[in-house]
């Protein structure tokens, strides 16, 4: 268990970033810290990891007083993955993972260190990339490499500050699944700072909601992902829905008019009309001119855009052939008539045609 007692901290000596925080984080669980920007989530994580010394208060991780214990003891008790992981040296994946063994080897790797590093590499599914340089990986692969380094440190507690930062949906879900497995299969205690309340709800055992440097609420997702709690934390009206046993917040549209399944969500209501660009009136049909064939007044079909040679769009339907005239096609299986694709914009003339009044503008004969 992680126990935080009366922790207070400010950067300028007057404005509190952490205001008398008292908190207990359960052992063997995945705990998410959620809240708006500036709520104090990352600062609290830094205090627990002893990367920041608070103005006052105590932090105990397991049986270890983090703020007073020697650094090597702290490094064997908890591992930290910071938000900004910039490595200037050109390292391979396996080199980075081996850095996790530094608290034990002090730079002189033992056979046991190599074995644990290889296990961590396989556990994050990067065995095929072990000798690839970090700058040759995708963002998701690079994040998994750093996670492998944290796992190679082989601590009971893992602290991660916004590990989903700059990851797409697929890699975010993969990262959260790895953290969930670390709890369920390896018995780790994981504390993670998240901005997405739905990831927190879907993967967490325990959620701590913060605002203005204080803990607003703490408990299981069923108690935190509630409309009234989220309104107090984020100052937003977030509709909450139950989906396959998970409580999910529709936060991208505050007060979203979605169908209600439980008493926590309002009844469905009509979505407000969207502002649209006025459309020109639809032209009414008129009888064909005297002497014209009925076929000449058939509705003109929209031109289909199909790739031509080297990817050039031809604007012809499948199997159609361009007529040398430039604005007509012959379609296979037809009656051989020339059919116009459609009117051309003013000032544009098909290849081989002249402007109005010039050569090539005589009326077509049948």
What is this structure's SSE topology?
Layout lengths: L1 E9 L5 E10 L4 E6 L5 H8 L7 E6 L2 E2 L5 H7 E4 L11 H6 L3 H4 L5 H13 L15 H14 L4 E5 L7 H18 L2 E5 L3 H7 L2 E6 L2 E6 L1 H4 L2 H8 L4 E5 L2 E5 L70 E2 L5 E3 L8 E2 L26
Parallel strand pairs: 3-8, 3-9, 6-7, 7-8
Antiparallel strand pairs: 1-2, 1-4, 4-5, 9-10, 11-12, 13-14, 14-15
Helix pairs in contact: 5-6
Overview of the molecule:
With 366 residues, this protein is of the alpha/beta class. 24% of the residues lie in helices and 21% in strands. The protein has a 6-stranded mixed beta sheet, sandwiched between helices. Strands 2-1-4-5 form a 4-stranded antiparallel beta sheet, covered by helices on one side. Helix 7 links the parallel strand 7 (157-161) and strand 8 (189-193). Helix 5 packs antiparallel against helix 6. The longest helix is centred in the middle third of the chain and has 18 residues, at 169-186. The chain is globular and about 55 Å long. The termini are far apart. Mean pLDDT is 78; it is low at 265-277, 294-345 and 347-366.
